[in-house]
Design brief:
35 helices; 8-stranded mixed β-sheet; 5-stranded antiparallel β-sheet
Length: about 1350
Amino acid sequence: RTQGCDVAAAAPGSPQALCVRPDAGTVLVAWGSGIAELDPSSEQLINEVSLIEEGFLPEDGSGHIVGIQDLPDQESVCIVTSTGDVILYNFNTHQLECVGSVDSGLSIMSWSPDQELVLLVTGQETLIMMTKEFEPVAETSLHQEDFGEGKFITLGWGRKETQFHGSEGKQVAQLKPLGVQPALYWDDHRPRVTWRGDGQYFAVSSVCPKTGARKIRVWNRELALQSTSEPVSGLEMALSWKPSGSLIASTQSKPHRHDVVFFEKNGLLHGEFTLPFCKDQIKVNELLWNSDSTVLAVWLEDLQKDGSPDHNTYIQIWTVGNYHWYLKQSLDFGSSENSQVVDLTWDSEKPYRLHVLCQGWHYLCYDWYWSTDHSTGEDPYDQALVAVIDGNKVLVTAFQQSVVPPPMCSFHLQVSHPVNQIVFLQSPQKSNDLAVLDASSRISVYRYGHNVVKDEMVKLGAARGNGYKQFPVMPYVEKTYRIKFEADEETGINPLRLQHLTWVQDDTFLAISCSHPSSKSVIHHLTLTSSKNGDDEGCMKIRNAVTVDGQVVSLCYSPKTRMVALQLASRQVLKYLWASPVATLEPWKNGNGHPVWFPHPCVQTTLATVDGEVVILGLTERSRFFINDMEIASNITSFAMYEEFLLLTTHAHICRCISLRDTSLKELQTFLSSTSIPNDETVRKVERGSRIVAVVPQDIKLILQMPRGNLETVYHRALVMAQIRKWLDRLMFKDAFKCMRKLRVNLNFIHDHNPKVFLDNVETFIKQIDSVNYINLFLTELKENDITKTMYPSSTSNTLSPVTLDGKKVDRICDVMRAAMEKINPHKYCLSILTCYVKKSIPELETALQRVHELRESAPSMSNSVSAEEALNYLLFLVDVNELYDHSLGTYDFDLVIMVAEKSQKDPKEYLPFLNNLKKMEINYQRYTIDKYLKRYKKALIHLSKCGPEHFSEFLTLVKDQNLYTDALKLCLIGTQEHKDVSILYGEYLSAKQDYELAGLIFARSGDFEKAIEAFLVCNNWQQVLCMAAQLEYSENKIATLARSMAGQLVERRKHAEAAVLLEQYAKDYEEAIVLLLEGAAWEEALRLIYKYNRLDILETNLRPSILEAHRRHLMFLESQNTTFVRHRQRLIIVRELKQQAQQGHLDEEAPEVLESDLFSETSSIMTASDMSGKYSHSNSRISSRSSKNRRKAERKRHSLKEGSPLEDVALLEALGEIVSSVEKLKDEVHCLLKALVLFQYDEEARELQHVFREILELMEGSIPEIWTSVTQKNPAPPVLGPSSTANSIMASFQQQRSVTSPLQDAELFMPPKIDKIFRWRLNILE
């Protein structure tokens, strides 16, 4: 962007110096008799001070101003005259004050960057250092013989005599060095001063009185000499210290070239680059670094020859990248006297703003910003060209073909003049065409086409030497067009008349120029026209289309929507309708219809479509990213658009790729403003300082440039997966497969993306791939899980409804593909068909081997068919040879067995006798022997059952050894002796396994009732015992004895009611039965027997005392449970309060031990296991050897109720839960007891029991929400996993979960016990 103003010469004389006042926005200009303050916005002189009238300069013009410096802290400007006066002019009081004077005069004034010190060079060439209050600090002579405090200490190493001198020989070391040449004739012999950026050192270039040559000396703030430069012939007067402090720039005239050279602080040379001029053609007046040390401005002018007064002046802008210096901009101010550059300076606040003052009182202000010139096509024909300006060359790299690190390139375009702008045609069909605007205001158009004549102006780059077989497609120069400016524009001073050149149509360009007044801009339409006289140079018509009320700082164009957006210096965004019959401007409006104003000026703008709305994207120098007037993020370093994707690099060193198709502005703002980084395909970590250069269409390469200048190519997962999804949706399986294979994307995605479409188009997939190896690769990678839900989940909403398919995924794919390959060409895809058999969840190796055997028997004669040898070798590659041998043996085909055995390492002396023996056997026994050898015992049993009764003993042995009882029972006929023998064996086996009930059933059905009784007795199945006794015809006494024995066992198991049945019905002892019923609290059943046998005396002797005793026991139990419950509940409250206080009090000290703390960063995940497990850890070696019973016992010990134990709250929860459960189980007993008490008129006792039981139930029901809170019922958080996790973070997550939360088997402790509120246990009569 250029801003200029012309001010009529308000005072006699020419301007001499320039100084910028950033706070006031004005420019100070020194001229022959004073200073003037200029306001660039209004183009008016707002202040003028004459030093002649005040007596500081003589009227005869013999004096002049040496330098001026704005002092914002003092609201003054410091002026130094050649007569020796140091003057302060106050802008508030408009008073001049002479703060000092030097009799010998002054030649240089230089303030330190912090403006704490000022250095003066006197006419006697002495240095005077003063403070900002102009108090002297030190004074010394400029020319000193000493080297300085940094003088080198030479130990004799590396002397010239000991060095290798190549072909010149050692005699070179004996030559005496030539004397240093004196300063050039055009040197003004004035000293030059430059400060380092931190103000700790400054350098002075001066002409030595003895040698007449220039030397550079480095001094510190105390005016102590540090170092002196080595003798350099042809050293010139220009001098500038890089603000970053590394290098001091100067110029050197060499016999064959003109160089910009760099010195280190110790005075030694360190690098150079050559200016693009011939020897003795120009002189360098000044070198200036910008404030961030990235740009070097060179002010040059032609040397006057033959007494000609006309000479051109130039300003060149140089940058460095990857150790190569690029000439980025060249400003030719011509030879007119009014356009000669007088002074220039970089802005102190904006690094890329340059202020220029010309002889005719013309002031120019240039604002530059970085941009990447690249083609914008998105089809595969786009070469992904990136062009770089390098003087009169344009370095072009075609990233579609190769990634060439700068400063190398694929090819370069040679232009006759230095290049200032490059534009690519904004057309999808011709996106590779480019145009170059050079310093002579000519545009060269380069096109791609069928031109077979090699263009001499287009040459291969350094990266395309003889070793490259594939050369890039290079453009040709269609024509060079001269821009025909209007008469008033031709006389303009600004060398960069046109900015923001944009190629919008095949023959139409848009450009911006600065208008008069400078607050306005003009949009130009440039049209290509052919020359009438047949000249090689065409003419480009330029017309003023629209005048913009404001300075245009950026222009962006979208070829899809054909919209042009302009950003003004006022931050307003305008829409330019250039294609309309009458070009018009209108405000750019957002979705709500309001005009868009960027909150801050943006240096990069682009048009995009977000959620169906065309918006403008902007990025500021401070990394703030805007869409329309909404700030989306504040940490963006670069961005680019590719199709519907927005790619961003951030200060967090990640590259994000977000789809704008279904994303609203609010959602986008939420995504990018969130501090948490999502762990999905939209995020990719990149190197620190990476910036986006270009995205290669279709190949989906993302080119990033590092701060040093080197390139890095990455394949962003989001772009890759989006492109693969498009290919799969279009059934372009080959392109998708090649990309996935190249980038190691799991091939399961081909099926999982849309299983139904893939299975319906398997034949298309096979025909497109058309490679057995690739199909085999696809088959071998198949997995059962759906990787679209695990590995590659889509960040956008999936519009496809999920389709549920039957069967296992791998089996389904193998079957479908095998059928398709059988249909297409079974001989060509034989190996892939074998792979389908092997890859199934249950490999069908026998079928695969049988297919190999068929190939051997009838070899196909087709050229693309596979031999049996190749098929077998491939099968051996997939399956272990020993496993394959076993499966071949399982086919019972001995020819196939021998074929496989020959490929193995087996000894023929071993397997041939074995096979020969098998061949001699009967067919069923042979197969039994093979199956037994292969440990296929069920099949062996089937074949052995067919061998006849003579092998039944062997049959029983196999059944007993391999526990094949159920299979054997199926093979034997029911009712036969064989079936009975197997059943007895099975019953004995079940008895040994302690499954006595089933063993008794097996014995009973086989007719062995004695063993059945024994089995049923052990399992207390008294009904079956009595049944078996009836079968054996036991006597009544024997049955009574058996009944009493079983009754005793049932009493031990607290089954009093069943024991009472045995005693009453089989032992005929009803009195003992009644006693057992009273012991078991079966009051009603006891009453039934009492009245049945008319033993009413038992009511008083046994029943009433038993009821009262049960009442007393229940009251005591409920009282103890109530006391314990209340005590545990109160203790639990105290423990929880103590834990909460400890957590809040020691949060900072024990942060790693708190599971849900959000106070750690990613780097805090590196912890040891001992840090996470706490001091109550166990010895893992001991615990691992314990049985499950002992582990449960250890867990119970861990839940200790001892006060202060680490898991006391868990132990209290467990104890409280047990109390509630035990009381809940008493409801049925209490209900029965209450009915008995009421029946025998114990109303008070019954009322007391019901009251106590109701109170404790209400207490527990009311306490459950307080004890089992929602916090205790939360499930433990899963461990942190994913591609961004580290081994340490995963281990720490598991250790945290194990130490802070309870084990999974204790999860029920945190769930409240269930209370049955439906069961009615109370009696209304007692209320």
